[in-house]
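Request: Could I get any protein with tokenized structure?
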Amino acid sequence: MKIQMNHGLARAVLGALALAALPAAAAATLALGGIHSMALRPDGAVLVWGGNVGEFGNGYDNDAYAPIRSRMSRDAIAVAAGSAHSLALRRDGTVWAWGNNDNGQLGVGDRQVRKSPVAVADLAGVVAIAGGGGHSLALKADGTVWAWGNNGAGQLGNGTTTPALLPQPVPGLAGVTAIAASASQSLALRADGSVWAWGQNNAGQLGIGSYTDAWLPTRAVDLPAVTAIAAGLLHTLALGRDGKVYAWGDNAYCQLGVADQFGICHAQPRPVLVPAISGIKAIAAGSGHSAVLKMDGTAWSWGHNQFGQLGNDGPVGVGQVSAVPVKAQGLAGGVEIVARGATTLVRTVDGALYGIGFNGQGQVGNGLGAFDGNTYQMARVPQRTLGAGGEGWLYLGSGGVLERCSPQTSLR
């Protein structure tokens, strides 16, 4: 069953999914997978929408164009998504996983798909999680990093390319405070502000000054002290303590925010300063675009705009790129931002959720998805995500009480 709105209601883009207004530095309450989206409610329930081959964790494989509940119904404090699997961190420090498992990315000792949440084996004391393509990462309270799943490019960081069906420690890392992952690379941020990377490096996305894969954690070069990291498909972002953004890796769509004197964007195997933006508090990286939140809560993006993922209602198409950051139209009060593929999600201080960009599987959550005529659905400006089941939106009242609200129009 696809949860869809009728055309009149869909054009109005009813409602908003309300989420808790947590500080920007809090655990991730949003996640984007290859074709699905996730959000965490204050009561610990995980909501999911978009495309589904098991990553919804509701026992089925039907798509949904508006948020629905997974079977992870309580006690979750953070969410993460891989290409086709989902992760949730529970309050007791355990990690739960569901979805595709062809590389052992669920960490349960086999390769069988799970359509309902299962506990990752032999893992406790976790404080943060990250999902790659077919691999997963966990950060423990003691500052160590654990990895499992696909390892074809050394993304598990254990010196081999052998997959792991159960969590394994990443050697040589200590004092880690944050982790990130993309298709075939992994990142760790240490308390001293240094960034360590391992896995695929064909576009220089590890930031180590070469294009050679690294099977063990290797320190990124030429970086000041960093406070946050984000992994795109083939590029990487870091947020300096000075509020500036540094980028490296693939630059085919100008997603690093730098170009030569002829306007040509070249790959960068060493970190470079994104010159045209500062005063940043949060960063996110998609396949061919980069997105940030400024201290004033506005959202800015640069890179590819094939599906409107820059959010400024500018021209769209394969050849549409911008090396200069542009401001998302009509969006204010942003406190959390995530990106993947050609989609961005932003949570605002009032608890509303907005989607920008590609919406081919309904990952924006505005009641639309798949094809509209001969084109994929896209949100060229921020669109509010609907409430559970596509009916109005959810307002999170005091004490976690859910109150049904009336329909609301979108920003457009």
User: Anything to note?
Assistant: The radius of gyration is 19 Å.
